[in-house]
Amino acid sequence: MTATETATNSHKEKGIRELTDEAHRKAPFELTVYFRGKRTRTYHPTLTAARKARSAASQVVKREGTAALTYDRSAHNEYEEAKRIAGNVPLREVAKFYADRSLSASTEKVPTVAEAVAKIIEVKTKA
Question: How far apart are CA 40 and CA 55, in angstroms?
């Protein structure tokens, strides 16, 4: 029998299952948590330990918000495009450069991200 065939949920707690197969004899409680679009499964020796782990995961959600639980494809696409444009320049440096230029001279024309990347590459190659 597989673990899923022998799983029980007699305690009826969300995200926690008790596995009764031999492979999970030392850690029979499986906790499933969805965080930042990823499913993670951890195994605990007691129901109390699984509850503590679930509580810790809940605290992270409270601290970081429910947006941390979802996968945002548009944000991923934006990140990929920024990495493609920036090339080998770290995005943190590009963001700092852009913020320094756009916030320090708010009366001037604010450069686009592509202009900022081109400028930072120019500065880096001259140094």
Answer: 15
Q: What is the arrangement of strands in the sheet containing 7-8, beginning at the earlier edge strand?
A: 7-8, 16-19, 29-35, 38-44
Q: How far is CA 88 from CA 6, 55, 80, 83, 103, in A?
A: 50, 40, 13, 8, 24
Contacts made by residues 26-31, CB under 8 angstroms, sequence distance 24+: 30/3, 31/57
Res 124: pLDDT = 83
Q: Which of 57, 54, 2, 62 is closest to 30 using CA atoms? A: 54
pTM score = 0.43
Query: CB neighbours of 76 closer than 8 A, spacing ≥ 6?
Result: none
